Amino acid sequence: MQTRTTINGLDKQQMMDTIAAIQGQPALAQFRFRARNRWVSGGENRSSIRDFYGAGAEDSSRTEAFEFTNGEPPVLLGHNEGANPVEYLLHALAGCVTTTLVLHAAARGIEIRELSTELEGDIDLHGLLGLDEGVVPGYREIRIGLHVKADCPDEELDALIEYAKAHSPVCNTVCRPVPVALRRV
Q1: What letter would DSSP give residue 22?
Q2: pTM, whole model, 2 decimals?
Q3: How many other CB atoms sit within 10 Å of the CB of residue 124?
Q4: CA neighbours within 13 Å on the CB side: how many for 87?
Q5: 3-state secondary structure at position 105
Q6: Residue 157 CB: number of other CB atoms within 10 A?
Q7: For 148-162, what is each residue's pLDDT tens digit?
């Protein structure tokens, strides 16, 4: 009888089984995530996320969609209906870097005792508003501060953080040009 153990809240045996399954059938690693969005008014719109394809099949584990309201603060013509999309990007980046770090720490047998992040990014509205074509409309820089306490030497923790940065899907997507196809349907 196998002993099931967890590290950092993850089932280590399930993690190893997942890796073995993907190594045995590489097509299981292909996922397609989806989001749907509907404009409400002004800067307010709502996204719904439920279904996705992964591990060789359509997922049916979610019975209800996750709902996210995008809004803007009054200074950007909104009414604080929700976080704005660039803030959601920071949220997604923080979540993905955190999850990636915890996952790879567990795979290395490193126990994370505390982990929190602080993110900030700089945007110049001249780009968004089309007032200066030389200004990029997105973030010019994003800074992530990680507060980590783990049961490993500092050098090992620094290597783990760099590994997490390189292997976080959201961080990787933000750090490289990604084609985005925009089309009317």
Answers
A1: H
A2: 0.91
A3: 15
A4: 11
A5: helix
A6: 19
A7: 999 999 999 999 999
